[in-house]
## 1
Amino acid sequence: MATSQEHIIRLEIPSEIQLIYVLDAVVSEILREMEFDDEAVEQANLAVIEAGTNAILHGNSSDPNKRVYFQFLVGEDKLTVIVKDEGEGFNPDLVPNPLDLENLLSTSGRGIFLMRTFMDEVNYSENGTKVQMVKYKFNENK
């Protein structure tokens, strides 16, 4: 439930990878307005771009007739980002660990790892078609 301090920004794009630059601009601007430091801006930006890229390429199979939906919940001390695609879904726990020796040279499979590394919370729902990520403004652990 949104508090009076929280604002919601919504963005919807077709599943076309060349539109990913829109996320870069939107996320960077939101985080700078929230006065996140440069490192946090870079981390959250990369995580959101990875989530958007995964939604376009894997969730929606780059089908331009399918959409990717973004919600940015701007709070006083945190940014919550929700990314939803129109795909079949997946189980994120079955994605191989990119740090395992047999996966180190793989050209894909790092997105979920990066999202979990750079955001303070990452949770999947709706059969893996929806991911919610949180970046706290002040987090001693990251």
Note: The chain has a mean pLDDT of 87.
## 2
Amino acid sequence: MSRSVLVTGGSRGIGLAIARAFAAQGDRVAITYRGSTPPEGLFGVQCDVTSAADVDAAFTAVEAAHGPVEILIANAGITKDTLLLRMDEDTFASVIDTNLTGSYRVAKRAAAGMLKARRGRLIFISSVVGLYGSAGQANYAASKAGLVGFARSLARELGSRGITSNVVAPGFVDTDMTAVLTDERKAEILKQVPLRRYATVEELAGVVTFLASDAAAYITGAVLPVDGGLGMGH
């Protein structure tokens, strides 16, 4: 059956790969974006997840086009890296507001419809950094670690209504963000990864579509690392 899927931050990178993977399965896919135009072939709605009004308007548009959201992938996120003593409060708070509080906003809006339907999938895109830590990324790591406690709380709160809540924690992924790194930095990173390579966005998308599939119906409250072994034991 075709399902109504919403991917936040789905205009590029991991989010876009996830959206296209669901579309390839025949699902009705919508993405949120902040730029001027959505990717070709996908239903897009402009939305800033730091705005509750934007989130509500986006869901209203998606519901009108595709029906109530049955699968939510909370992927929208930002980075503002700097060392702690140089990090001002706005730099810290803005990352938390987008990555963690933004996920709360979209999950709350999606859960209302899921509770009525007595089914649904909530999938949060975290990061190995949220479990492993990273110098210069205290704000980002805090926001991504917060998703784990948030998702597991929702797993306990909503599980009796047939709603699962899980976390995917990517490591280093071959995207535009990593493409700009120097060769030296890339070599340093790969030395830490047992598989000695980056993940592809398609590998991330495959894990997410699995968690939304019937095969994962009994998985909830899980944190699934897709990091080549970088964060094992954390």
Note: The mean pLDDT is 95.
## 3
Amino acid sequence: MILCCGESLIDMIPIENTSNEVSFTPLAGGAIFNTSIALGRLNVPVGLISGVSSDFLGQKLVNELSNSNVNTEYLIRKDNPTTLAFVSLKNGHANYTFYDENSAGRSVNISDILDIPESISTLYFGGISLCVEPAANAYEKLFHQEVNKKITFLDPNIRKGFVIDEASYRYRLEKMISSCDILKVSDEDLNWIIPLDIDIKSKVNQLIKLGAKIIIVTKGAKGASAFFENEYEIKVPAESVDIIDTVGAGDTFNAGFLAKLSQLDLLSKEKINNLNPEQMTKALNYGVKVASITVSRKGANPPFLNEV
């Protein structure tokens, strides 16, 4: 089973009526939550570690998880409120304003997290849960506790406006990048992590030297690339679709990528470190395919397996 570790929240999605007035519709979301939902809908065994409020919005999140085949036994229930993320869209591209102070997701401590059984093959980390305390410290500790036993997949999914202590956040990411099995970044994330005027491959090489074993870079309409430690690059194109919005696109890509590795029985420490170009190409293409369905509809609404 794959365990997704991090935030779950409510995306407030703007809806414009015929009078050009905007109202907001609450939809379940959060980068880590979205990936767990997408994996569950693709029939991959998956669970979620996340701080979830006991309020009515928290119950909405739990219901969405259950309806999408996600194991909820690792959820950490709190009386604190649910995080809200108000979404603004420009040409289909999403920007976020977060309301997270004293939230259930932010209040997670390492002592809240259940022991990780041997049946878990993969731990998935990232998102805003790595930005703020005490949750960021809890997830970082869990990562380093399990990194030598489980496959670790890291997607920082950087939201600059959410970063309070940039120096501490960069230090945390550097430590996690140096030891993770798979690092996935968007081209925007990569430019934030390495803010130098050099090309993508040169930036990737810096992260490989830091210790990352496999690096995936998603480039929107330009597709995705994967880089190995030997600097070998595999490229796949994006699929041509009518984009409604990009909410949850990267999260769904990650789920598709991991789902294909799961289908190919490659989610073990030994196998993941010996992926060949054919296997990587299949996983990248499946990630792109699944993400293309998500961007063709409103909000983070990953497809079920029969839709793929």
Note: The chain has one domain: 2-307.
## 4
Amino acid sequence: MAVDHYENFPVASILLPAPLREPVAAIYVFARSADDFADEGDLAAEQRLALLGAYQTELDLIERGEATDHPVFLRLRPVISQYSLPLQLFRDLLDAFVQDVGKDRYRDFAELMNYCRRSADPVGRLMLHLFGHASTTNLARSDAICSALQLINHWQDVGIDAVKGANGRIYLPQDEMERFGVSDSDIARRITSAEFRALLHFQVGRARALMLSGASLGWDLPGRMGLEIRAIVAGGLRILDKIEAVDFDVFNSRPILRPLDWPTIFWRSLIRPLDTLT
């Protein structure tokens, strides 16, 4: 199992309260299918954009109260209505997927975080709206967790992303690559140099700090909701541990969660570390 921010949806999880399993699944189907439009298969860019544009049109229909016959939105519409979910969060996701079709480099970390704000943070915000805990403080902590998960996914998949699209997709900020002495061609040739290791060491430390800055959310939310978030946080941190364990050589040893990792994740979900105390 990889750390992918849509796979980290608690879809039909036994940890979720039963009434929330279908709403979460409906949101997941929307996000997963739209993400696949941007990334999967052999469609041309124009076809990918057309599919994403059709989803944008469906959101407009919901906003205007008009009918739909699209199966994804027939399932999603009552969830949006019942829980008063902000349509802008769905639009932000689609905007990020559109960006993925045409953008394959990020100038600096601020530009990358702007992408995370739209590609990852809406997931957590939607969950908090479903849970009824969408306070300003909770939303900020959720953003930190979701952006960290997105970054972790990028760092474990540097080698996979490098072969996506015509030029490969590199999420490592270009200015930081230059600072550490790593080039696009180094990534394309999958060279795990000392410079690359230093760059990824820096990125792993930043992702861990960001994750920990939001981790207290899982301890402050009640019951199964909090436990679900704690497990997701623990899984993300476990991947970072594994990136370090292979000495940052993610080209030849892509870190994933295996069955033997789950006892550690479960234990970390039950024992609150001192750095999450507020």
Note: The chain has two domains: 14-102, 104-278.
